[in-house]
Give the backbone structure.
Amino acid sequence: MQEITITINGKAVTAEVDERTLLLEFIRDVAGYTGTHNGCLEARCGCCAVEVDGDIVKSCNVLALQVAGRSVTTIEGLSPQRLTPVEHITTQSLAGVYEPLDALGADEKTLHPIQAAFHRRHALQCGFCTPGMIMVLKDYLEDNPEPTRADVRQAICGNLCRCTGYQHIIDAAMEAAEEMRLQAAMADATADGGDG
Ligand code: FES
Ligand code: FES
């Protein structure tokens, strides 16, 4: 066993792990961020995708020891709706860790553009694949702001969805890309104004 610290969504998490502990297990079982899903444990489904220092990885395919001292972003890091990690999962405890969107103040309704587009375009059914889809799309769209539908299809080729048939996911990604371009242009304009 070895003690390591991984920063997850900006918070340092320290725990003892053994050489076989997966990053996925550290995120879910140690840190309590259960939005990162275990769909296969074989690097096939993409449900467990997270960012490590800004690069997307399948967390079932990485050892926690390999990520010691680094920063991880999970789906919970994209929006303030998720309030606290889950320590013991029951229906009741889950109800207590999510703040209903309706209960949030206007300033707090800051879903990531991809999350908001998934919501608007009905890009999920059971939702099991959704955290991985959104993390992969976030990583892709930040680097490729003007994709075609074929580009998006290629970007999510490592993410399996059993429910949706993918069309609404691609619709949402295209809509989110437009919103992200708009936000980037506004940020640039603000920065230019500040420089002047
Ligand atoms: S659980 Fe990691 S790719 Fe399926
Ligand atoms: S929404 Fe069910 S697996 Fe994708």
